[in-house]
Amino acid sequence: MQMNDLDDAPAFGARLRAERERLGLAVHELAHLCGRTDHTQKRYEDGSQPIPADYLQALHRRTDANVVLIITGE
Fold it and tell me: What DSSP state is assigned to residue 48?
């Protein structure tokens, strides 16, 4: 993996959406679990807003999402 791959927000967002769907959660459910609005959750998933570390920490603490997969794609 190249360093610039880590900054690929659309890829992060697609993996986040895939994990949310794998967990069987609606956008609003995951947003609520991680302390975000539906609008912000959608922006993370479409890659138009970077996913901050505190969100990933909440995601890890409150769900069974594979945060390493979301970050690395592996």
Answer: S
Q: What is the pTM of this model?
A: 0.87
Say which amino acid occupies 63: T
11 class by beta-carbon count within 10 Å (0-12 exposed, 13-18 middle, 19+ buried) = middle
Give the C-alpha separation, 27 to 3, whole Å: 29
pLDDT band at 10 (very low <50, low <70, confident <90, very high): confident
Domain 3-72 homologous superfamily, CATH: lambda repressor-like DNA-binding domains (1.10.260.40)
d(Cα 18, Cα 30) in Å, to the nearest integer? 12
